[in-house]
């Protein structure tokens, strides 16, 4: 059973994020909202997704990012069966 993340609190968080204007504001906000480990985990999963899209092997990804095979597998599952959020962002970044 999946959890419904669409709540008023999550809406408020996303509205706050959409108000950030640049990378420096992102650093300020996310350093306050997240622990260092949470932020590094987000960044690691994003790098894993990028490398999976580049057709890198699990071994290459694990060596470069330090991610476990379980994390790599989870990200791969999101890329293949998720909501296409990674693809949307990567496509926009490529433009």
UniProtKB/TrEMBL annotation:
UniProt xrefs under Gene3D superfamilies: TrpR-like
Entry superkingdom: Bacteria
Annotated GO MF terms: DNA-binding transcription factor activity; sequence-specific DNA binding
InterPro entries: Trp_repress (IPR000831), Trp_repressor/repl_initiator (IPR010921), TrpR-like_sf (IPR038116), YecD_YerC (IPR013368)
Pfam families for the chain: Trp_repressor
Protein name: Trp operon repressor family
């Amino acid at each position: 059973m999946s959890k419904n993340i669409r709540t008023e609190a999550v809406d408020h968080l996303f509205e706050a994020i959409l108000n950030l204007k640049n990378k420096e504001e992102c650093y300020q906000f996310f350093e306050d909202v997240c622990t260092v480990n949470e932020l590094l985990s987000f960044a690691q999963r994003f790098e894993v997704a990028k490398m999976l899209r580049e057709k890198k092997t699990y071994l290459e990804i694990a060596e470069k990012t330090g991610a476990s095979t379980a994390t790599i597998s989870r990200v791969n599952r999101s890329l293949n069966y998720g909501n296409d959020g990674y693809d949307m962002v990567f496509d926009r970044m490529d433009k």
